[in-house]
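User: Quick one: structure for sequence A, then sequence B.

Assistant: Sequence A:
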Amino acid sequence: MNREQRIELSKKSLKGISVGDAFGESFFGEADQILKYIQKREIPETSWEFTDDTVMAIAVFEQLEKYDTIQQDELARQFSINHKLDLNRGYGATARRILREIDEGKYWKEVSQNVFEGMGSMGNGASMRVSPIGAYYFDDLHKVKQLAIKSAEITHSNIEGITGAIAVSIATAIATRLKIEKVIINSYEFINQIIGFLPDSDTKSKIKKSNSIPYSYNIETVKSILGNGSKIMAQDTIPFAIWCASNNLGNFEESIWKAVSILGDRDTICAIVGGITIMSTEEVNIPKEWMKKVENFEESKFRNK
């Protein structure tokens, strides 16, 4: 596969992130009303504007587009530049602090390692932006893991945050390969392939646990076992996102509706699921209306062409 084709695959994953991100962001509000929208499969009135999930994913994609790899110092700078371009894209407090300090000239590695009293961040932010790497290097899972770690370390030095990024990037790579090779596997096989690339961590343990949860389970039961991102941590977010994607590899639309139904950190969960499942879904199961309405990242101020 040539470089241009890889870039297009990576861009497609970024599109999936942006659609899922903007979709999920639309479902914040009064709980009872939001649940009614979900039950009726109606999208609340929305601008279809994406959040920091997509903003940061754009910078990751651009690294691949320019270099075929991750240049950590440059990616750190681009994260901080894009953050300053629009402070109102939903960044968490820790991300704001890290990006502000990078902008002030501090070395990203020291900043990343110093948060949470030297433990580093175990948040889900490294996972929400990483799918373009999996799509780009779908045929080299060891390369995917290596670059996922490099992209994560800039803001997430804790093993949980890093594990989440590896899991999402590997999941995207496998989903991409399945579509290209016209292969179908079940959710159990999909998750097992991911687990083999993960370091020992709580996130890995919960992803492994997800393989014993039937898709028919009530969503509240699933939430009690896997979490829904309300704690903003990788181990509270990624297990459900992987489980949701694994059960909807052929249906992007269904995967996004299932993702939002667990509520919690809904824009991030939908962004992660969207970045994965768009790669393995037949075009008929990708709503054209969603693709048209979402904010165009190609024309956005965050696109550093």
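Sequence B:
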Amino acid sequence: MAELAARGEKPEYLFWVGCAGAFDDRYKKVARAFASILNHTGVSYAVLGTEETCTGDPARRAGNEMLFQMQALQLIELFESYGINRIITICPHCYNVFKNEYPELGGNYEVITYLEFIEAGISAGKIIPELEKFRGTRVTFHDPCYLARANDITDSPRNILRLLGANLIEMERNRHFALCCGAGGGQMFKEAEKGDKEIFIERTEEALRVNPGIIATSCPFCMVMMTDGIKYKNREEEVKNYDIAELIAQSLGF
């Protein structure tokens, strides 16, 4: 973004990479996959690079309101300096906080998820996936809480999976009634509480009951928990966990 601004250029979108896309080795692959999709469509976009910081969402979820506001106001000021008004996210938590919580601090943007971007790209013919790549593959989709329950985004991921030719099999609890992966609301960063079973194991068991070849996710927290659950059940050889961006990138040959 800084390089474009120095040349007097302004991209159409800010691609918000997020903490996971920047630092988590597994989710870096998702960020790269989506960047390859952005490049494939020819859309004008840029990233903040070293200027990008956390949105403050984990701080608010954990109860540190002061830290959240400090981080949010810092980013709002940065966005204003670049004239940013359209943001694409690959993390539901970032999407939710930008869309629903930044406006109360003066940050008003058009925020879209990468799933909506991909779906629109397929509809416009800018993204043409290879249908044979996943034809007949049993895929179940785990709904992230901050997409389904918080923002009513349930159709886009399923539409994409069907357009890939996958055999979409629903878990018992899905869409607005889906069970949390166990990492949301700041739970990712604390020890498990007392109980008979951790939530990610309960959710993984529910996914495995439909006998999938792939458990598709669209959230970095969900990816960590589903991957750990598959390993816990010793099923990593026959069941894979991929983000939807990775599936699209694979179908395009990236």
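The chain has a mean pLDDT of 95. The chain has two domains: 2-117, 128-251.

User: Thanks, that's what I needed.
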